[in-house]
Specification:
This protein is of the alpha/beta class and 248 residues long. The protein is 38% helix and 26% strand. Bound molecules: adenosine-5'-diphosphate and magnesium ion (MG).
């Protein structure tokens, strides 16, 4: 068997905040083009792990690798610009118009065609720049804001995407629309993606594999069907039951 092509990898990562072990020996590898959903309750350590992959968090122990290179040896700014990141609530700059928000990274890189790149990214998420480019973030609906945040991440033409509960704050209908749009987009782009969600159904819908994090430890990493068929722990079994994953 050839080695799988690993793009992102955390190896035995520990991160403490005072007495709290936010991550307590986490190992997780993402294969090229794969979408892994990281699922767990509030406080489980999901955001902390996600942020280890763009050096917004540096682990106390263990290593984080991108394409086999130790992130600790790479320039954090370069790492962040090469990594698409959508935080909870999107994180758009409120005093910048949509077009400029989306063009941020290409512009920082000095790309001459930053505006055209931004327009293409807005098209990808179904928001033509002609309609929304000149608006302020506050003039958008919640769902539109999250689409713009995704467009901004995509405009950087990232090799990897880190999405922290990108659909978390939306109403059920908008959320379902955005999930469907994202599923289509992902098949087109094939970007290696770590998606944080507290919703196991969303994880099952979008992910190739689901990683269940509980109190800083991974309980199981497997395709959703396998979590259902063979939960590794009682916790995973209860999680699957509560989410009614078996139901259609
Ligand atoms: P999740 O995203 O799963 O809700 P987090 O990764 O945000 O969880 O947090 C995991 C644990 O680490 C929590 O107990 C949280 O309070 C703590 N924590 C996270 N970031 C910090 C920080 N910057 N300072 C102190 N404690 C933190
Ligand atoms: Mg979080």
């Amino acid at each position: 068997m050839p080695e799988p092509d690993i793009v992102l990898e955390a190896v035995d990562v520990v991160k403490r905040y005072g007495d709290v072990a936010a991550l307590n020996g986490v190992s997780l590898a993402l294969r090229r083009g794969e979408l892994v959903a990281l699922v767990g309750e509030s406080g489980a350590g999901k955001s902390t792990l996600l942020r280890c992959f763009n050096r917004m968090v540096d682990p106390d122990r263990g290593v984080v690798l991108k394409d086999g290179r130790d992130l600790a040896t790479l320039d954090p700014v370069a790492v962040r610009r090469a990594t698409g990141y959508v935080q909870q609530e999107g994180g758009l700059l409120p005093h910048w118009r949509v077009r400029r928000n989306v063009a941020l990274v290409p512009w920082l890189r000095g790309d001459a065609d930053a505006d055209a790149t931004a327009a293409r990214a807005l098209d990808l998420v179904g928001l033509p720049a002609a309609d929304v480019g000149d608006r302020w973030p506050r003039q958008l609906s919640g769902g539109q804001r999250q689409r713009v945040a995704l467009a901004r991440a995509l405009a950087a033409r990232p090799a990897t995407l880190l999405l922290d509960e990108p659909f978390g704050a939306l109403d059920a209908i908008t959320r379902a629309e955005l999930q469907a749009a994202f599923a289509r987009l992902r098949r087109e782009l094939g970007i290696t993606t770590l998606l944080v969600t507290h919703d196991l159904r969303e994880a099952a819908l979008l992910a190739d594999r689901v990683a269940v994090l509980r109190a800083g430890r991974l309980e199981q990493v497997a395709p959703a069907a396998e979590l259902l068929a063979a939960p590794a722990t009682d916790y995973v079994r209860r999680l699957v039951e509560r989410a009614h994953l078996g139901a259609a």
